[in-house]
Records
---
Amino acid sequence: MRKNFTRQSFDITARIETMRFDGTVLFENLELFIPKNTWTCLLGLSGVGKSTLLKLFAGLATGDAITEFECSDGTALAGRVAYMGQQDLLLPWLSVIDNVLLGDRLRTSHEPIRLGNAYELIDRVGLRAYAAELPVKLSGGMRQRAALVRTLMEDKPVVVMDEPFSALDAITRLKLQDMAADLLTNRTVFLVTHDPLEALRLGGHIILMSGRPAQLEPIAELSGATPRDATDQLVLEQHAKILNRMQAELS
Amino acid sequence: MTVLRPLLIAAGLIVIWQSIIVITGVQFFILPSPARVASALVDRHDVIAVHALITLSEILLGLLLGSILGTASALIMGYFRSVRQWLMPVLVISQAVPVFALAPILVLWLGYGLGSKVAMATLIIYFPVTAAFYDGLRRTNLGHLELARTMGASRWSILRHIRLPAALPSLASGMRVAAAVAPIGAVVGEWVGSSGGLGYLMLHANGRMQIDVMFAALFVLAVIAIALYFLVDAVMRRLVHWQPETKPSND
């Protein structure tokens, strides 16, 4: 079994002194606070650097960066983050169950492969019948569900997600958001999205990223149970407000 | 139709062959008729079989050795950056010098037996296998690599579980080329200097004006080459069964 401390939650304060990519300065003196056990959603237009910031959290440096991640429990962040990307990134030669167990296979530790946990989670997202199938047999929504399970199998206190549902149709997206909200309760989630509705349904804190070098601005604080209904009065009001804000950024 | 088609093609070729003889009235010692070649095949089947067996073992050994050396070189180049810088020029040189020009030297060094022909086949196969596989190894999907890194995978584990399987379709292309050119290497080796094999038999028959035997040997060589190609193709298809095939003609 995993040691308990891996699931202890903690706040993260990220300080990015500078981050350059191909000569341009993407970030300068950026500070971001990610409180524990809630969803923090980072909104912004395409190309503003959301994914880059998220990759820094996941330990995937894509350029010259001077960063500092301070965790409230005093331990380093590295190794305590699970990453879910824009694409499902399922390996086409592995069945769904083997894809879900990828982390266990890659870490050639002596811990046993957690087949039981994997099947339990696959059951919860309704993919039991497809466990032995190759990813090509799955629809986009099913593939993203498999990717979600693979992320959960990492069993990390922090989960960072990069527009994981952006390629799905509206209804499938809502379903996946519900599933993710349910499966990721009591974890610290950092979600990057360009969809204000997604941020409002799932987020506790919503932050807007804009400009170059990029600036961060908290634009909404929401409480209460998630996922919120898409037709919820609060969600609708905020949605209109945020859309206006983002449109203003464009002009 | 798929069963019938090769037979129809063969029948068509024989008809064309026979009509050339009828129309031009060419002498049998220049171009023997299909019937003459067939009877040579039957009459001399014991001799042809002995030589065919020699050539077949040269081809198979060359294919085995060449593909083992090729895959190993590609893997080593993919894993050790420093080795790549040393091995790559050698690889290019191995291809820049015409293998045919090396044949007399190989016969001089390795003698008239199997050795020099296996070396020829190996040399001719080595480059396509190495180049194709290495190309595949360095074209791994960046997303897959990033995912593996967030999962704490070692370089070795990434090579084994991600780069290697992802490169198998490329290796399959290389192996198909290898299967097609391996017989060339073996036969050229036999022409330069040998005491057995279909290439030797052809030269021998040519010297004695047994053109029908020469054609019979050529026929057997073609059958071996075609069978080898389809065998390798079938094995490779099985190896990359997860790869969906799209046919350009269906677009």
---
Amino acid sequence: MTFEENLYWTMIDIANALLTGTFIGGYYAMLSIGLALSFGVMKLVNLAHGDFLIVGAYLSAMILTVVSVPPVLVLIIVVPIMFGIGYALQRFLLNHVSVQAMERRGMSANFGLMAPILVTFGLSISISHLLLALFASDAVSIKNNLAFSAIRLSQDLSISLLRFLFFVVAVALLIGLQIFLRRTVTGRAIRAASDNPTFSSLMGIKTDHIFAVALGISLAISGVAGFMIGMTRTFQPFDGPQFILIAFGVVIIGGMNSIKGSLFGGIILGIVQVLAGTYFGPSAQLIGGYMLVLFVLSFWREGLFSK
Amino acid sequence: MIGNFLNSVAERRNATIILLLALIVLLLFPWVAGEGGRYYTSLLMTVFLFATLGHAWNLLAGFCGLLSFGLQVYIGLSGFTVAILNYYFQVPVWFGVICGAGVAALFAWLLAAPISDQSGRKQMFAGLAIAIVLWVIYEIWIAFVPGADIFGGAYIRRVIILLTIFLGMLPLLKLQGAYFAVATWLIAAAVTSVFSEWRVTGAGGGMTIVSDTTTIERYYVGLLILIASTAVVWKLLNSRYGDALTAVRDDEEAATAIGIDVRRIKSMVFVISAPIAALAAGLFYVDSVTITPPDAFHIRWSAYVVFIVVAGGMGTLSGPIVGAIAFVIIQRFLAGLWGGGELTLGLASVLLILLLPRGIMGLVQELRAKAVSEPRVARKTSLLSSSKTKVAISTMIPDGPGLVAALMVPGSPLPTLQSTNPTWRDIVDAFGTARAALEAANPDVILVYSGQWMAVLDQPWQTSPHLHGTHVDENWHEFGALDYDFRIDREGALACIAGCEGIGVRAKPVDYDGFPIDTGTIVANGFLNQGLQAPLIIASANIYHDYETTRKLGEMATREAIKLGRRVAVIGIGGLSGSIFRQDIDPENDRIKSPEDDALNRKMLDLMKAGDRNGIDQFRETFVKNARADNNFKHFAWLQGAMGSEWSGAEILGYGPAWGAGSAVVQFHINRK
């Protein structure tokens, strides 16, 4: 190969990594917005987040086996169901094991911090085994004709159409969520309750309800993300942990309490993974991602885009 | 005091006998069970193994507040160490298990190392530079001598070394709560992906461990590992780190504030817990023969230990053992019944935290505390002996809930520790009288405020249901140790905590095992509450609270306790004038340090005796200032708040010196309205 050819392919590799990484970043952001939201508002580390993504994916796939409509329409049903699950979960379970609730019951501060994490961990185990009992361990996916479509930018450079669409949805959703949190009454109540639950409840905000709405929104977004998982790949009951690690990686890079950070975190993780995959083989993708997250944790404990 | 001591000795002896019997049964079990009972022998081994894993996790989460979801990393590392040594070098498996523990300890040390270095980043970068130089030298060496590559491949070698460097840089133990939890999980996932790629460990297909161990052999190894790990945890809790550990567990911020080196304790425990988990894991894989990376590094292991420790009781010594029994029962038997063992486990974890956050052992403790405090109800009449006593209790004590007694007693341990010393004799006798009065008042609860339990942050209240042990006073240690045995009215304490909000005081429960216990409360409880065993509500003395706040605190606590339908006795623990002798004195020559102090003390006591509430309020500030009153006399503020206007005069049961300071036992006359 001549020097020019070499240079050309290097440039293509880098351009591909930047483009693909960025668009994967949109997908990663979708996987993690719900996690960032529940942490930002309730300080809740939802270890069952990955499993709820998979629940969203299964819901979408199951509905599509019953009715034959364009796949995207299942979201009309999936999103409200996921919202309902989230609302009920927070209202009837997680509100009772929050830090404040545990302190009221005379448990130590440390246990108070642990209780919600332990409960969601227990939920994670339960959900994955429930999915196993319901759907067996066969790999499932959402059949669609977009999965292999690509947008060709040049002879040697193209991006997946689906990933591009996901990116657009993620950006739109993030903007929408920001507007919702800033401009609407409920959004402001959510922010107030997250800043100071005691005072906002004195001001007449029903924090129990508001937190439940926040987890509802978190899970509704996870429902959309789960649908995206099903559109791009096959999934199984025990895939939750794999996705929660991606989501956590994104949130750690972006900053745990920053919803915007999820997009940038997703993009950075995406680019690093694609670069590692290009230069060191496919298995380096995963380990490269982990190393990036550990590196960020070493130097920027609050994440790169934290408020 | 003596009764209490005998009780605790008897209790301890009973416990020892039960433990010995259990040990004998377990030692003989495989022989009794024989061939037919092999299944149960192996099942018990599983219990030992999971109890040991529980100990490892409980050390981190239960005692250090380190919520780890990465325990599986030690399990995988240990299992593969055994497998590699066994397969490539034909090392006997039991020796391999010990090596596995060593590898896990090294790995934990690598993770914990960045925290113990105080000087921070500079040293970290130096370490990083050294690591990279060593790596480059190693790569060059391999270029000339390919045999030096023990990793079996350039890619995996570089990944392993790079990952090791990254892990070495990560200040894992500085991460808090959720960050720590997620980081441990990520580390385990990263190590898993290395092992899944690695040809040496079967490139994802796993390995087999070939040995000729018998079920009985594995059983005894399991028992040995469990006993050893229990002993290590027990030893740790009873060492000088024990109190520090529980303090770190309950409130890291407060622990740091009182000068505990939280980081050192955390890294020590972190490194100790790794080999404990590794020993159990080694045994597990010797028993199950095959090991694969996805199985050995599975997050499931964390789910198991979470259930075991939460079910048994987090932060207790016996919790993991009890939890492991529950775990094996659910996992083996329920799974057999309907195939949903792990689903049950997950749901049970959720329900346990919701309904029984203290676990089975917590429940047992609460039930025992109840069982001890209940017989007291039957004893309504009291036996009185001395004539002085009769005078003291001649005040009318009405039935039903309300304030029934109020006492001010000194918190100095000297009369307790040397009750025969003539200069302290008066106080000892006065305590006896006060005790009889208290017994006659038949309280359901004793509200205690001791100036010696000094709090800096917030207003802590003791909520541990049963506290017993031995305490040595910081100042008077040469006079001996104090045994104590308190029952706490948890419900009452929690009500007081809730009540604090109403008076603008930030309160919180403390539930430490044997900490903080102050000398004053021990002295008062020892003299006044022996045999009576009324439960206590103990309030701390925040050093920043002023007189008025403390008065409100006393008022609130009394109100809350009465609201619960209790007959309430209130005790303010503290002395009068505060100046003590700064030199060694002969206790027999003890006296109030100066005549001025003596005069001030007597004036205050006279005002109390006369029930002159206005006079006391006017004189108080002068008294506090000129007599350097003990704890700014806030123990009396507590009493004043509690009694309000429901008192008229007092009986001075005793007055005397305590190493120069003034101390008095005062019984207030309660007139309930």
